[in-house]
Amino acid sequence: MRAVRLTQVGKPLENADVPLPETGPTEVLIRVAAAGICHSDAHYRAGISKIDPLPMTLGHEVAGRVESVGREVGHVALGDRVCVHYLVSCGSCEFCVRGLEQFCRTGQMIGKHRDGGYAEFIKVPGSNVFPLPDEIPFEAGAIMMCSSATALHALKKARFKAGESIAIFGLGGLGFSALQLARAFDCEAVYVVEINPAKLASAASMGAIAIDARSADPVEQIKEATAGTGVDVALELIGSAKTMRQAVLCLGHLGRAALVGLTAESMSIFPYTELINKEAEIIGVSDHLATELPTLIELACSGKLRFPQETLRVVDLDAAKINAALDALQDSIDHVRTVIVPSK
Ligand SMILES: [Zn+2]
Ligand SMILES: [Zn+2]
After folding, report:
1. Ligand 2 center to 289 CA (angstroms)
2. pTM for this structure?
3. Which of 29, 107, 169, 191 is the most buried (most CB within 10 A)?
4. pLDDT tens digits, residue range 194-204?
């Protein structure tokens, strides 16, 4: 089968011809219908996040049809539309038994520690396969498994509830999902902080208050818009110390800042005036849980979580095209996600 693989860190991905994976009794073989190209994949290629072993087929945002199914897998059948939970966990370590599989002692990420969806077929454990209703396009089903899932996990970690206001820093794949999820959960007001004009326009068209960080300090703008109160929840989805600090500073009393974006920079806070006084909280967010996926699938089914065709770019399963899409992620892209749809 065709696959697009990372052979050497710091080098472009390569087209490869690899054997069709053999599946065991608890596994499922999926014919990939859509695979999202994620910022993390650019980090693996660049060597910013360590990837092991090589060569590796990237791709952790995957949806498709069941091609073959192990005899011990009962919840999906041949030909079913499915999407894939990207964390493969042991199910028995002290974290897994508490439903915290993101910390699994021997956890593996699909497309990082084991071959992913930049291929015609992918083999995954049956427990990682979720049925994808007909109402949800494959492209949306794939993207939801990463960006929407992490956005939902961030909202849950921040204990976001109906009637609260929220500031979202960055309208990429995560922000685009977070905005829709916040609205689905009956938020009061959503502020979207961005510097990309196309994304500011798209935030406004989705009912958010667009905060242009190029024109003035976003914290001042949010304070002004909330009559000095600040917001209940802030999500930092960019991964810079500057925006992380802004996310904390725009909080009101009892506000919670959930930090999702990755950075190696350190961030400074004045504890008394910026946290203690307000009983504000800073919360780290890592990945998501399999138990959160059914909520997403339900919201997508009812049309509350959507990835309209104009927000996506589609490319074929081809190394040159995928490398170009990964290159583009180094700057701010105007669309939400590029998705690989392998030609037949
Ligand atoms: Zn991803
Ligand atoms: Zn485990």
Report:
1. 12
2. 0.94
3. 169
4. 999 999 999 99
